[in-house]
Each structure stands twice: as structure tokens, then as C-alpha cells.
Amino acid sequence: MDGSDAPALGDAPTLSAADAALVDELLDGSHRALARVITKIENRTPGYRAIVSALHEHTGGADVVGITGSPGAGKSTLVDKLAADYRDRGDTVGVIAVDPSSPYTGGAVLGDRIRMGSNVGDMDVFFRSMSARGQLGGLSTATADAVKALDAFGKDVVILETVGAGQNEVDVVRTADTVAVLVQPGSGDDVQTLKAGILEIGDVFVVNKADMDGAQRTVAELEEMVHRREGGTTGRDAGHHGAASMASTGADGSGSGHRDAGHAGGSESGETGDAAGVADADDADDDESWTPEVLETVANTGEGVAALIETFDAHAAYLRESGEIAATERRRYAEEIRTLVRADVGALATDEIERRGGIDRLAERVRDRETDPYAVAEAIVGPIADCVEETGDRARDE
Amino acid sequence: MSAEQQERAVRCLVAKVGLDGHDRGAHVIARAFRDAGFEVVYSGLHRAPDDIVQAAVQEDVDVLGISILSGAHNTLVPKVIEGLKEYDAFDDTLVLVGGIIPDEDEADLKELGVAEVFGPGTPMEETIEFIRNNVPERA
Question: Per the CB < 8 Å rule, is A44 touching B7?
């Protein structure tokens, strides 16, 4: 990263010879190489970034499905059956299953593999367990990179499975094209808790263990909730379309929505805004936004799994045909870039703190009332900011 | 970006092979490994050697601990080790066997490439210490 080419997009990090060989082996279909690359991604082994960079151009071929839900909802069992069904129709499958790790020891028991009974011995199902390793915000980067490795390897479908318990997990599953939220029957409270954060990300809702009592009620509750969400969406859509049909009026929000249509949609405008924008661009004036479906499955017996796969396919087709896939991908890459930049700048700041005697010493000085937190932060970030401005100026001058 | 922190964790597969339904020991070991800060994948019961190889390769584990109480170790362990070699995974996987292994078989297993055999009553710390000291270095 020398200053002279700062405004350009820059070159990919350089691969070491050994890593280049590893990438070639992965692209040639070596399971060992694929497993090793994912390990490097997980461990953040020096050089892993160059590997992921090199893989990027080979990605884009896989349908990525995210599966989330509360513990015990049957995610692993369903993933097993999904993988088996995909295999039956000839697709190759990759699975990344995320399990929490102990914040105290860092240890973890990664138990999802036990449920993969339908696919043992089938090397065309590549199943990999990952632990959260307590990395702040880094988990979604690591899983997204692992998905890229499976995609570049040539998997037709990649399934990303995680407990829908917190923001970290939600971030993980958001990196998928299609998100399924699993709910167990008879858990009215469960549906209530889904409101916060998870309801918004579901493209498909699955009531698993649908042979249990209360399944119908849970389906009804979910449908009502999806409907309510749709109601809200339609309201916004109507406003948008209404304004759009007046074409050149470009009144307030809708005008910018139009300009966004060709470019990266403002991330804040969210899915519906982008969908509507792109639909406008394709002059499809009817409301073609995706309505989340509520499905029933019994993962144990495989009941409903075929219908679920059909729905996943339908959603993938919707994303492609509506043009929404471009907006989804832009949003995802934008988020990746932001996360990486934030992490790297944070790392620079951490180094600077070390150079100034370490965080403990700084904290002690604040405690002694010698200085205060704002002053310390200013002192640390100031030189970095100067540096950025300087190279920015130089770049502009050239 | 040299500043990024590496996060290396020891990954283990605790495996039950063959027709042997006794997994209390495997569970206890898995939990002890977890508490030692390892990432543990448990295979589940009644796995074929091929399944174990598949799991060990895909999960890219540093340590493969095979628990056998059925007496079939002379048949099953060689198959697992052969499979690992087939996938080029044997050299950097530490293979351990735990369970009921007669003394006269221990030497044969080690000859095959098993790093250590842990019999009944082995203190948990001893196994964990052994792993810490012998986990293969990887590039």
C-alpha cells in the first residue's frame, strides 16, 4: 500500500508460492486443500487474505442458503436432509455449521456433524464446523470467506447454519442469498422473540417438527406476522411507486431511490427500497417483491424438504429475474469492505496504543487524572488521520 | 496487514468407530478437551472408518482421537490410517487411540502410526498435555 496508487483500487495481496499451489489444488478439486484453506481463514494465518483474494474471481456460481433458528429447532437435522435431497438431484453441497465457543476457555464442542447421518461417506457433501472463537464482528467475515472457498471449489449449493441467538449470528446468516428461519411449534414465545431482528431477515419461515401439537397455530402466527410485515412493506412500496409514476416530479425520497436503482442502493434504504428501485428500472410496474413463505417440515422423516428446496429455488430465481441479486450482492460486498476496513484501521490503532506504552498504562494515567479518555483517543488517532489526509492530498495532486 | 491477530485453536475429532455403543468415555474426553480450550468435533456412534476419514479431512483436525472398546482396533484403526494417507492427511494429523487395547497390540498400533494409546484410568491431564506437546506444526 504505497501512497502513489492510493486512489486506484490497488492490487490483490501477493500469494506466496506455497499458498498459490494450495489455491491451484483447491480449484483442481482437492478436498484436503479446501479444508486447509478454510483452516487458514479461521486461524487468520498470515497470507490468508491473498488466498481469499485469489479465490474471489472463481466465486459466484453457488446458491448460498442461510439457515437459522433457536437451539433445538432442528437446524442440523434439516440441513442433513436438505443436503441429501440436493445430492439426489445431482448438486454438490457445502455446509458451514457455526457453533458457539466458550468465552472462558475458547473451547467448543461442535456437535452439528453428528446429525449429518444421511451424508456420511459422501465426499460431495463437504461439511465443516466452525466455532465463533469470540471474535468481534470477525465471525461473519470468516464464514463469508469460507463460503467463498466452497463456492470457488465448485459447490452448487452452500448451506450456512447458525444458531439465531445474537447479532453476530444474524450477521453471519445475512451473508447468504436466501435466509430460512426455523421455528418449532408450540412456542408462541418463540415467535414473539423472533420479532427482534430475525423476522426481518427471513425469506422463508419453516415450522419444523410440524407433526407436533401446536404446529398449525405457529404457522398461523407466523403467517400473520409475515403479513403484517408485508403490509408495512406494501405501504412503503405504494408510496414509492406512486411517486415514481409521477416520473419527473422526483419528490423527496423517491427521487433518490431512482438514482440509486442503477447504482449501489443506499444500504439504509434496505431490501424493499432496492427491490422497488430495480423493478422500476426494468419497468415492471406490478409489485413483484418477494413475499416470505411459511412452510412446514418434519426434518426427522424428510417431510416437506422437497417443497422447501423448491422455495429456495424460487427465491433464487426471483433474485435473478428481478435484478435484486445485484443489489443483494452489492450490499453484501459493501458490508464486507466496511468490516475489513474497520478491522484494519482498528488494528493500526491497536499498534499505536502498544507503541504508547499499552492500554493499561494509558488507563492508569486517565485514572490518575493526568489525562482523559478523549485526549488519549485524539492523541492516538490524530497521527493516523494526518497520514490519511497527507496521502489523500498527494494523490489528488498527481 | 501484519497487525491482524492470528487465532490458532487446536481442533480435535473424537471418533467412535464400528459396532461399539459405549460412548461415555468419548463424551467425557470431548468435554475435557473443550475445557482445555480445544475445538472438538464428535463423530457420533457407529461410524465406519471411511466416515471418520471424511470427517477428519473436511474438518482439518490436528488430532484424531479414536475410542474403541470393542476389541476391533486391529481391523478398524489400519483402515482409518490408510484413508488418511489416501487424502494426504496422515502426516499432519496426530492419531490417538483410547479404550481397551491389550498391551501386545499397542506396539503394532504404534508401528502403524498411532502416536499414543491411552488405556483406562489415564488422567485427563496426561492426554491433554500429550496433545499440547505433540500437536503437529503446520505451515
Answer: yes
